[in-house]
Amino acid sequence: MEKVDIFKDIAERTGGDIYLGVVGAVRTGKSTFIKKFMELVVLPNINNEADRARAQDELPQSAAGKTIMTTEPKFVPNQAASIHVSDGLDVNIRLVDCVGYTVPGARGYEDENGPRMINTPWYEEPIPFHEAAEIGTRKVIQEHSTIGVVITTDGSIGEIPRHDYIESEERVIDELKEVGKPFIMVINSVRPYHPETEALRQELSQKYDIPVLAMSVESMREQDVLSVLREALYEFPVLEVNVNLPSWVMVLKEDHWLRESYQDSVKETVKDIKRLRDVDRVVGHFSEFDFIERAGLAGIEMGQGIAEIDLYAPDDLYDHILKEVVGVEIRGKDHLLELMQDFAHAKTEYDQVSDALKMVKQTGYGIAAPALSDMSLDEPEIIRQGSRFGVRLKAVAPSIHMIKVDVESEFAPIIGTEKQSEELVRYLMQDFEDDPLSIWNSDIFGRSLSSLVREGIQAKLSLMPENARYKLKETLERIINEGSGGLIAIIL
């Protein structure tokens, strides 16, 4: 099942074409890797017998020693093979055997006339061996591959020591990073589990910031091939990161400080995610924020490049925000339930007049229509019109009318000379430009300006006599119930 999943995910990321560009220095085991890869994964899954035989014939030659075997780039098989992985999953697969970068001690890249000239698919004329290695590596990865595999060695597979490979290895990695395709590195070793090999694997992984696997290419098994593909899959770019905030944070208003803090933390953290491999590392960074208790990886859709992360908030933070929103410290479940009942009643009352409040703010006049529960129905009454009879059904329902009235309040203290008045104006206006609301906190005669103005407004509102209020209500009732559109007001 794992094999099917790996091929399925890679096929999704590459559009069904799994093209491996195998690059590196000479005498590292590139041709052997391709041969074993084909024998373990590709050939057994080619259904057409003729295609399988042709692919078998196209396998590269490999041998021990210092002599270079691959002297020109080679596509294996020459035409991409369609392999059947499982029901509904067929992929096209092909490997490219590159000319390796030269290393000291290798034989075969020079002849008696100097640098060996070799043929390539990209030029009509033969080109020098070292040039074919550089150009071939770039072209193979950029134009003919969906995944790159760098083969290097610890020096245990042949007669060339490890230090002779380092320069070529670095050049290959630089070339691949410049191209930008996903790639991994394989250390070909006769002792892949030795502590020294493991130390080299970790060193190269940190040095190049790529996944590095140590294995004996000559003894490679199907599981090793799947490990290479799985690690390569983690090198594909992340296309989408979904971060799930705690559900109760999501119901806060968008401009609430906590919700903004969560959103800022997400922006700051996920910007470091470039590859699927980065997701695990970045998830741990969320715990650095005080308002995030922990973060967990909810899942990764490998084939689609989508990662999903869940964030969890501390329990005491919920209590703090609840107190902030409600305005009262919650003493327990009983207290919370009591408050919820009060708030539910207040919300029911508010819902009846909320539309009217919007209307009165916009137009100066708002009407709250009565609810069904407010209506009272009189007893049905039989009425007569000439020779015909009918039934009168009369209902009475209170409607709430809101009128916005702009109340003017004036405060004009007489304080003395013109200069003293100018000083008072300057005092009132000193912070007005930076904070217009600060003027209300200005101290005048031992009292704030806001309290003086509020007192004046309250005094005017209380001046409206009871009989005037009653007459205004009576007038509105007649206009609405009798449908009279005319109104003459005489204010005495």
UniProtKB/TrEMBL annotation:
Catalytic activity: ATP + H2O = ADP + phosphate + H(+)
Cellular component GO terms held in the UniProt record: cytoplasm
Locations listed in the record: Cytoplasm
Domain Stage IV sporulation protein A middle: 238-416
Biological process annotations from GO: spore wall assembly
InterPro entries: P-loop_NTPase, SpoIVA_ATPase, SpoIVA_C, SpoIVA_middle, Spore_IV_A
NCBIfam families found in the cross-reference section: spore_IV_A (TIGR02836)
Chain's role: ATPase. Has a role at an early stage in the morphogenesis of the spore coat.
Protein name: Stage IV sporulation protein A
Species of origin: Bacillus xiamenensis
Superkingdom field: Bacteria
